[in-house]
Amino acid sequence: MVSAPVSAQGDEEPEVAEAAADEPAVLSPSGVAAEAQTVITGLYRLQARIHHVSQIEHHVAEIGTLGRQVERLEVDSDLDTLDVQPRRELRNLREHWLELDARLEETGEALEESAARLEEEAAGIHAQHARWDATKAASEDYPDAAVAQIDQVLETLVEVEGEVDATLERVLAAQTRLAAHAIASGDVLTKLEHALDESASRIFTQTHPAGFGGMVGRRHESLPQQLEHAFIHHVHSIDRFATTSGGRIYVHAILMALLVAFLYWLRREHRLPSLEGPAGAIEHPIALAILVGLLVVRPLYPFAPRAVVELSQLGAIVPLLLIRTTPKVRKTTAMVVVLYVLEWVRLLLDEHNIEHRLALQATAVSATVGFAWCAWRAEGVGRPAWGVASLIALVGLGACVAGYVPLAVLVVEGTIASAFVFVAFVALHWAFTGLVEGALTTSFAGSTVLGRHAETTRAATRRAASLIFFLGFLWVTLDYFRLRDAFIEHTTAALGESVQLGEVNISLGEVLAFCLGIWAAVVVSRVLSTALEEDVAPRLKLGPGVPAAAALIVRYTVLALGFLLAAAAAGIGMSQLALFAGALGVGVGFGLQNVVGNFVSGLLLIFGRPVKIGDTIDIVGFRGIVTKIGIRSSTIRSLTGADVIIPNSKLIESELVNWTHDDASIRVDVPVGVAYGSDLQQVHAILLETAKGLAIAMPSPAPAALMTGFGDSSIDFQVQIWIAHPRDLPAAKSQLGLAIDAALGAAGVEIPFPQRDLHIRSDATKG
Question: What is the dihedral of CA 373, 375, 378, 379, to 10 degrees?
Fold first, then answer.
């Protein structure tokens, strides 16, 4: 590219210089030849991209589909009667519109991205056009070949520029249509939110006369008409759900298939003696997979119509009853399932009609009696829980009879639905416990750290599952009783409340975040260090002591990172941490020298490794095996079984004997004395043969028998053998001594007693 010439005169007017800078650069003949083909190739590629941009065509077609869905949903929503529609129906409509609004927003973002990209391409083409127009105007003296190339480039620019502008106009027109649909959707959502607020305000309002009649002033439909309306509503809900969630449904089905395959593999590979107790869940893999797949519809599809959620929970009844729990739990589950079916039948009726009110009263009576029966059969904390549920259902019955139907619907529906979710979660928890029991008995689990710590793994997973299921049950129950939004709002406000302590501002949320961060760091550090030391390191065949040192490093590194993340989550900045570190430094200077010394010594032991876990050492008057190297102190297990805690600084500063620093083998010396007059060659041969035949003796270095001198009462020998580890020293001495005694005795060689000369001196003065 050749730039336009710039004037070198320093006294040029600023306006003239600015105008010259805005003029497009003119290409020289050589520049035309160099760039013409490159520009044309780039334009053809851009043209091909525009012709094959299927996304734009897809989004334009999607807008038409969304527009038809908006119109259809507006008709189905019956917007003129929102103020009198049941709250359940309003929530269904809001979920439909929220899902449609999310799709409108997604399509709008895609079109916005396409429009921005096209505008950028159009701006580039316009700049190129201006540049080549300027070159055309200055091409009077250019060769004919250069002029022809300029004309070809300009012709291609005009063609591609027109296509880009046309495509951009289509995208902008599609955005206009989409904006109209989005405005309509937003207006309907606003009306629905207002209607829901009005419905919430009517919860404690008497909407029906006392007794058993329907709502006064409302047109009543016959029972067949109500069922027909409910059927059409469910069909439309399923149709919209299947249309808008196709891709996610495929993923859902694949996950269920994988779960079925895993359950069949587990049923084949487990080594449980019998499928009693929680392990009985493995007997029905398909039922368990279907139960899980249907119960996750609610969290997996947040905008799924409520009718679809209710049908999925209704379909989960059969696999739920197939999960083999305890007899009491099965009977309680059967009772709750019956109540849930009655509640679902009631939902098919119009809330304003007399049939619905009678069905609501019958359901409330059944729930009161049924939950009381569950309380009578339950034990422990379950008895008061079911008793409270029975009382709540009784309150719903009283509210229905008194004419407070919205309140009765909220109470009865929330209680029965929550009870159904509870028994479903109990069955899932039971099944999960059985899966863990079976999985821990497989050969694969046995080769991992989880299988080697089966009891710890079993207890940890049971606690984690109990916590997760309890929180899930609480979350769903708050939604059924329409308390979730208020709970979130009040919880957020409570966590945001702060207390001023001097210059420090502390809130409950920050304290909880810090505590949870530290707790998570401790748990993760323990899991990672244990897995590294017991599962990963043995596969890598590292040297002795290396896995423990690496695990210790990982543990304290994770703890340090966890502390920093927890501090950041609590709103503690690096400057505040620096202040804390400065205060800690002052404390170290005054009273923590020994602690810091031991800490640094621990780091030296970990990285320098003069002493490793498993080493046999002599220190402070005893011999023992290093079993743990901590960050402040280390543990030495003596040969008598006592654990001695020694500060790390002692291991660094004191003199010690490390019997296994580089080589764990050790020499065992046993002195032997034979009587004068014995055949020394025979004795030497016997001692050497006995030492070589000892199983505990290493072949290299070879055993030896040495004649060490002439004693007072015996000729002294010393038998030497090498053993693999110092911990075998007592056993080796014992075995070698017994073998020598047996061999010399069999050969008739005498081992003499010590001889002493006794001199008796008499006193000459006596006598």
Answer: -150
- Element of type H or E holding 226: helix 223-244
- In a domain, residue 343? The reply is yes
> Is the domain of 290 the same as that of 369?
yes
Structure confidence by residue, pLDDT tens digits, 264-292: 888 888 877 776 777 777 788 888 899 99
Return the pLDDT at 577.
61
Q: What's the rounded Cα separation, in Å, for the pair 359 and 481?
A: 20
- 399 plus 299 within the same structural domain: yes
Contact yes or no for 94/168 (Cβ under 8 A): no
Take residue 678 and report the two structure tokens written for it: 């014995």
Statement to judge: residues 54 and 172 lie in one domain = yes
For 483, residues 6+ apart whose C-beta sits below 8 A from its C-beta are none
Enclosing domain of residue 232:
225-489
- Reading phi first (left if > 0) and then psi (alpha if -120 to 50, else beta), residue 621 is in left
Summarised one tens digit per residue, pLDDT across range 114-169 is: 888 888 888 888 888 888 888 888 888 888 888 888 888 888 888 888 888 888 88
Q: How far is CA 420 from CA 278, 353, 581, 734, in A?
A: 20, 26, 54, 71
Of 431, 455, 489, the residue at which a domain comes to its end is 489
pLDDT of residue 269: 83
Bridging pattern class, strands 715-723 and 666-674: antiparallel
Amino acid in position 43 = L
- What pLDDT does residue 77 have? 60
- Residue (of 744, 742, 692, 743) closest to 722 by Cα position: 692
Residue 498: the pLDDT is 75
Query: N- to C-terminal Cα distance for the chain?
Result: 142
Please indicate, yes or no, whether residues 471 and 402 belong to a single structural domain of this protein: yes
Element (H, E) at 667: strand 666-674
Question: Which of 90, 46, 45 has its CA nearest to residue 188?
Answer: 90
DSSP at 702: P
Low-confidence ranges of the chain (pLDDT < 70): 1-24, 51-60, 69, 72-89, 216-219, 244, 246, 275, 303, 500-505, 535-549, 569-600, 602-608, 631, 755-767
Task: Answer yes or no: is 108 within a domain.
Answer: yes
Q: For residue 499, is it within any domain?
A: no
With contact defined as beta carbons under 8 Å apart, do 638 and 623 qualify? yes
For position 385, what pLDDT does the model report? 92
Question: How far apart are alpha carbons 335 and 327 in whole angstroms?
Answer: 13
Give pTM, 2 decimals: 0.65
Alpha-carbon dihedral of residues 301, 306, 310, 311, nearest 10 degrees?
-70
30: left (phi over 0), alpha (psi -120 to 50) or beta: alpha
What strand order describes the sheet that includes 666-674?
666-674, 715-723, 704-710
Residue among 108, 139, 187 at smallest CA distance from 28: 139
Indicate whether 692 belongs to any domain: yes
Map residue 52 onto helix, strand or coil. coil
Strands in 657-658's sheet, in edge-to-edge order, are 643-647, 633-638, 622-629, 616-619, 657-658
- Nearest Cα residue to 411 out of 346, 481, 479, 350: 481
The predicted structure's pLDDT at residue 75: 66
Q: Kindly give, in sequence order, each residue whose CB lies less than 8 Å from that of residue 525, ignoring residues fewer than 6 positions away.
A: 554, 555, 556, 558, 559, 562
264 in the same domain as 353? yes
The tally of CA atoms less than 13 A away on the side-chain side of residue 16 is 8
